[in-house]
Amino acid sequence: MRERILDVALELFSEQGYEKTSLREIAQKLGVTKAALYFHFEHKEDIFLELHLRLHALGREAFDELESLHDGQQRADAWPHVLDHFIDQLIGNRDLLLLHVRNPNALDQLAHNERHQAENEDIQQQMGRLLASPDIPLAQRVRMACSIGAVIGVIIGAGGVFSDVSSAELAALVRDAARDLLFVPGQP
Amino acid sequence: MRERILDVALELFSEQGYEKTSLREIAQKLGVTKAALYFHFEHKEDIFLELHLRLHALGREAFDELESLHDGQQRADAWPHVLDHFIDQLIGNRDLLLLHVRNPNALDQLAHNERHQAENEDIQQQMGRLLASPDIPLAQRVRMACSIGAVIGVIIGAGGVFSDVSSAELAALVRDAARDLLFVPGQP
DNA sequence: GTCTATATTTCGATAGAC
DNA sequence: GTCTATCGAAATATAGAC
Question: What is the assigned CATH class of domain B1-41?
Fold first, then answer.
């Protein structure tokens, strides 16, 4: 039951937004009552947290690989390859990505959540550390940030303009674009 | 007063999100009561709409210039130059952009708003028409979408990592990156 | 584990005095 | 233009029976 609740919540939170989705609505879609949900989750926020941790787990793999390198420039060099893998992960979990992009404020609420603070090595923090790394040239860090925005923008963006393009073809095109973006002219 | 309401609303909607910001909160920050707001705006949604139309006005200039060109390939060629101008506009109105990125569901609500439907030539629609244009190669359209995501991602993204970089320098770096991104290898 | 029933709070919106 | 006072709806969350 717990998984079914999470699946329905993911769907509704992504479609309508976290705040506009009531527990009553989730329960109705599952054919149970609101009170039944409270047996499995103490607060509404806990449902969102559990879904957030799924993305957390997804991204951890990529960023752990980067942080295993001890030099900033090494990390910057490895970035294109790691991003390729990250693109695949995100395209394979479009719905999870959509949940986060469409509910940034719900994400902020988790900052005050004890369980979330315990799970410290957050994707956002890891990404922040990387993009703030002082031993990577600014121009390159900006382009790394651009590459993330570009990938996310295409996957979720423009309101499904590329929905008739296969995931594989889209991934390949985005990979090529990211590669050109990440090559900084005049840098060794 | 009307402008003061809009300014406070822009601030709170961006910080906390549209749904989580009550009219009572806006009124309190202005030193008036909730009821006073209803003299200036009939519904809460109308406040958000008015703010949305500010961005609408901003983007219209750029997209009108593109749509004045009658050929798809001409539009694609003009895109880098138009994007440059668009980057300046967005950086100069960071708060307005943040409002929209952080409240996608509030934006969706406007679709059912009559006044919004009347204001038809919407940015999203114009952007959609451009990115769906059949006489621009798919690879190029994907890169155009990437460029938008890259720009927005850097301006609002990564939680203020580049906040110590001046707007002018950041804009220049993003412009360069976008230019490299938009050049499609093997295309005339 | 799920139910009914209810407590409690907060929100958007309105009525009418000033 | 702004106030006080209030309505009605809907939300989260809880209590206790089954």
Answer: mainly alpha
* Euclidean distance between CA atoms B53 and A106, whole angstroms: 25
- Among B27, B25, B145, smallest CA distance to A149 is for B145
CA distance B45 to A14: 21
Q: Which of A146, A159, A165 sits opposite B153 (nearest CB)?
A: A146
User: What pTM does this model have?
Assistant: 0.92
Of B142, B93, B58, B89, which is closest to residue A181 (Cα–Cα)?
B142
Residue B185's nearest CA partner among A186, A166, A173 is A173
Is the Cβ–Cβ distance between B113 and B45 less than 8 Å?
A: yes
Closest residue to A165, CB basis, from B138, B159, B183: B138
What integer best gives the mean pLDDT of chain A? 91
Question: Backbone dihedral region of A119: left (phi > 0), alpha (psi from -120 to 50 degrees) or beta?
Answer: beta
Q: Which of B135, B134, B107, B112 is nearest to B123 (CA)?
A: B107
**Predicted local distance difference test score (pLDDT) of residue B187:** 67
- Give the model's pLDDT for residue A185: 75
Domain ranges, ordered by start, for chain A: 1-41, 59-182
Local confidence band at B159 (pLDDT 50, 70, 90 cut-offs):
low
DSSP string, A86-142: HHHHHHHTHHHHHHHHH-HHHHHHGGG-HHHHHS-S-HHHHHHHHHT-TTS-HHHHH
> Cα distance from B102 to chain A (closest Cα, Å)?
6
| Contact: A150, B154; criterion CB under 8 Å | no
Contact A152 B154 (CB under 8 A): no
pLDDT at B134: 92
Is the CB of B24 less than 7 A from some atom of nucleic acid strand C? yes
